Amino acid sequence: MTSQPGTAQPNPQELNKLGPISAGANVALFVTCLVDLFRPSVGFAAVKLLEEAGCRVSVPPSQTCCGQPAYNSGDRNTAVDIARQTIAAFEGFDFIVAPSGSCGGMIKHHYPQLLGDDAQWGPRAERLAARTFELTQFLAEQCGRTDFGAALSANCTYHDSCSSLREMKVKAAPRDLLKKVAGLTLTEMEETDACCGFGGTFCIKFPDVSNSMAARKVETIDATGADLLLAGDLGCLMNLAGKMKRDGSNVQVRHVAEVLAGMMDEPAIGEERS
Q1: Contact 270, 244 (CB under 8 A)
Q2: Could you report the per-residue pLDDT of 37-78, keeping only the tens digit for each?
Q3: Domains present along the chain, CATH in parentheses
Q4: CA–CA separation, 168 vs 161, rounded Å?
C-alpha cells in the first residue's frame, strides 16, 4: 500500500462511463470506524481484493469517522466539520472505496446535501461523491472482476443492508462475486432487504424496537438452513451476531470481503479466539 494520493484528477462523469477501469487506478480505502476498531481483517481483505483487481491502494492516515453518528443525531455542525475533513483527506484519488454501504452512502449522498449551500465545499463534496463506491460494487462494476479464486465449502445467506441497497444501489454485485467462490452455496432468505434493527444510534435510542427487528431477521436467517451469514456492512453483522449468540444460534457471521479474499483465519464475528 501507499499513503500518497495520485496526481491525476479525472472527470467523475467520464470515469463512471468508462466501465471496467484500467490497471493502476489510485484507490483510497475508507476503512470505517467499526472496521478499524472491531474487525481490522475486513480492511486487510479489502486491500487484498483491490490490489488483485489491479488497483494501487492507499489508506489516508488522516481519515476518521464519516460523520454519520453526528448526522443521525442531529448534530449538523459536527457532521459538517467531519465531512470537510474527510473531503480534504480523500481528494486527489481516482476512486474512494468503502467496505460499508452505510459509510459510502454518507459520503455519496449526504455530504453534498450537508455542504450544498457552501460555494467552496459544495462542489468538492459533489466531486468526491461521484468517485465513491461500496467495495463489492466497485470490484464487480468498475473493475469488472468477480472471480478472485476463493474457495469455501459452506451454505451461506446474504443480508442486504439498508444503506447498501437503498443509497448505494448494491444488490447484484455481492451475489455475482459469491457465485464465483468455489464450493459456496448461496441460499436467499425471505425479506433479505428488511432492516436488521441496527441503524447506528437507532438501536441505542429504541432498543426494544431494534431487538424485535433483529429477532425477526434472525428467524428468516435460521429458516434458510445456512451455516454462514454474510453482508457488506459491519454494523449489521455485529448486531445480528450478537442477537444470534444470545439466542444460541450456531450460524457463523462474516463480512463478505473476508470470504472473497480467502482470509478466514480470524474467528467469526462474535466468537472468541481459541
Answers
A1: yes
A2: 999 999 999 999 999 999 999 999 999 999 999 998 899 999
A3: 12-141 (1.20.1050), 147-260 (3.40.50.11810)
A4: 10
